[in-house]
Structures
1.
Amino acid sequence: MWNRIEGHPKAWDMIVVGGGATGVGVAIDGASRGYDVLLLEQSDFGKGTSSRSTKLAHGGVRYLEQGNIGLVMEALKERGLLLQNAPHLVRDLAFIVPNYDWWEAPFYGLGLKLYQLLAGKYGFGTSRILSREETLEHLPTLKTDGLRGGAVYYDGQFDDARLLIHMVATAFEQGATLLNYVEVTGLTKDAQGFVDGVNARDAETGNAFRAAAKVVINATGAFSDLLRLKAEPAATPMIVPSQGIHLVFDSSFLQGQSAIMVPHTSDGRVLFAIPWHGHTLVGTTDTPIAAATLEPIAMEEEIEFILATAGQYLAKAPTRDDVLSVFAGIRPLVRATGVANTAALSRDHVIHIDRSGLITISGGKWTTYRRMAEDCVDQAATLAQLPEKPCVTHHLHIHGYHDAANLFGALAVYGSDALQIRKVMETGAQLAEPLHVALPYVKAEVGWAARHEMARSVEDVLARRTRALFLNARAALAMAPAVADLMASELGWDEITRGKQLAAFREVASNYVLHP
Ligand SMILES: Cc1cc2nc3c(=O)[nH]c(=O)nc-3n(C[C@H](O)[C@H](O)[C@H](O)COP(=O)(O)OP(=O)(O)OC[C@H]3O[C@@H](n4cnc5c(N)ncnc54)[C@H](O)[C@@H]3O)c2cc1C
């Protein structure tokens, strides 16, 4: 990637700042149309919100209730395209809305039927009303007191960071140049005051450089205003950051293959309990915060709220001691006037062009990243006066595409790459060894991450190439020394670097461990 940058003779067609779902989506779209694209990410790909979501490819049942039919239809279409283009990473999942009052079955049954119909030809499974017995067949660990039945509907589930890494590979294959650990520190302007490039700094070496561009796209999520202020110190802020947390438990809390959807929590939101990689993922919250940080911390009230709400629905009420991991993410919601709480803010995406020509794309959802990118590249190409080229991502397969990846067992999320990893495992008996008894990851995955997936740190491997930190933080801490040894031999770290890497990981991981 560095060679591509150093050997680049002219201005890039587009420079994208930010390597989350939005930025990488834009890089795929731009590169696959034939534009010359550079993407710079200050930390690791997905370090921001895009590894911290509820992991649902969904239309958003909640937005249906808010009457936002257009948003729901668009997201349902994108959900369908995502399943079609990345079947190795997205799956169809049954969600059950448990009913405790007589009116809930017809009310939710009808709403969820509409949700199913709005998907049209991109539909997943058929929604219907369930008897009490059928509800318990789907959810054997649901609390039975007062349970009358349920309503089932279908949505998509995916592994967010893993999809993102495969998207980075897709963008690269389409011709984009992408670098992690390079921060954009400033924007440069031409004589007319239009943004014409970026100043950047390699976080690993400290080396600074400038790259010229016909257009710069700000896809920095919750950090969008910081970059806008670099172009225009008087810019009006457009982001209202709102935090959401998740708790992860073992699979005994939610047995079976279905998820629970609670449509109305005491704070007027929805709560999900979802089976994910052999664990139970429960979330989320919507807490306004003052400013975005790269490693947000779950607040005590948020933890207590999720434990209490989950305890109302699960036969075995989870306690703090049961929490294997806690993680927080920040929604880059776009400011609206006259809206009292962040839960009511629109989840639609916004493309904003400052007077300096800096394009900011924000809001939206993981599910709609492809559509967001299409809209953004259309506008960027017009602004930069690039030759018009049609979007081709509707049917573009994501790297690793495989329509029967389940055959690869624990390596299924790698799609067709699983075959290569299996070959690596065969080259040395120790490479097939598990890194921890509680998690399915093997040593070969570490070398794979360093060689083929741009993993640069122990944290990259444990948080985003594997999901160890998000599934079981104590297990991830126990795995860290072995991962550091493997990374050291892959990347040529000396003992001091290895020690620093471990210390840095332990500091981050301490935020994911919940103390009694
Ligand atoms: C709790 C929660 C649950 C969610 N659940 C879902 C869900 O189930 N389904 C769904 O569809 N959506 C969900 N979302 C929404 C979705 O996760 C976000 O919309 C999406 O991840 C935003 O991606 P992004 O690329 O815009 O931001 P980010 O992923 O935050 O990426 C921005 C990147 O910009 C980088 N950056 C910042 N400044 C600079 C700089 N100066 N130079 C270089 N890089 C920089 C950051 O390091 C960061 O990696 C959820 C969001 C939250 C918070």
2.
Amino acid sequence: MTVMRRDGEMASRIYNFNPGPAALPLSVLEEVKEEFLDFKGSGMSVAEVSHRSALFEGVLNDAVTRLQRLLKLPENFKVLFLQGGASTQFSMVPMNLIPPGSSADYINTGTWATKAIKEIEILKKPFSVIASSEDRNFCYIPKNFIVSPGAAYLHFTSNNTIKGTQWATFPNAGSIPLVSDMSSDILSRPFDPIPFGLIYAGAQKNLGPAGVTLVIIREDMLARAPKDIPTMFRYTTHAEKNSLYNTPPCIAIYMVQLVLKWIEENMGGLDAMERLNLQKAELLYSLIDNTDFYTGTADSDSRSKMNITFRLPDENLEKKFVAEASTNGMDGLKGHRSVGGCRASIYNAVGIDAVRVLVDFMKEFSRKNG
Ligand SMILES: Cc1ncc(COP(=O)(O)O)c(C=O)c1O
């Protein structure tokens, strides 16, 4: 597609349905480009300024404040920017948050939850898997489960990027703190942060580029960490130093700050973001539901608004679909290598125009190949 840049010139872009790294708002990319050689009149690139300079701290603190505002975080929640991806959180969470004599609860809804469970197993910390949707290849979100009384926390993955399922409402664990991997749906909708002890998200889907991981932690959870955790793996290390204990991924944090500004100032905040995301998902699901050619892989009450997973009548047609979509300017529609099929990832930065183009292409493809 050809798009108008901020400077009035035209740029050639494709419709990006990649699962992560994923589409970023064009205006953010342009802002980065414009400021790249001379960041805020400093005569340096943001990649060159000291992370301890007032300039960079301004970026970091603005990102924190915007997140607090967008997510309506109470004051006792700390916002941290860490490294190592969401995958490092699979082990940092159990290392830090299970007091002696206590055990954690996990709900297994697919690949990423399974990986989180594998890490607590390696660490030999006590845990129970209180619910799983593995019996039907993770195509649904479990409904009936009992949270263990006194559990240290209940861990769940809010959106299952690979299987295309999402928690429509979060589990109710009473006073047991929720811990959630929100890598693939953070900031796609508003939610109540109060029941959460910790939230983590790799940036590369809804927040910015890869290289930084957002962690939001309730202050009382910080005190739980045993004394023998190596420095970099302790949340307190990063909380006490405002994420500046060591050199942070400055460019990634800067881009996250711009994405947050875009959500607040261009998109109208999380309520508006959610309305748009619902509209986008609805366009695709209603097409899928109204044809025999495409079949959704997730149960309807568990469907993700971010990753729309579907199958075609056979694998050859799926290959042809992905290839023809690519020729028509749409990228990233191949399902995850572990599950096959097709997947359209429609994160915040994927516009409704892109979804409309995909829907038209899908209609035409099924007409020609059905
Ligand atoms: C839900 C979820 N959790 C965790 C990860 C892993 O994130 P990272 O690559 O940042 O470790 C992903 C990556 O796609 C994901 O979708």
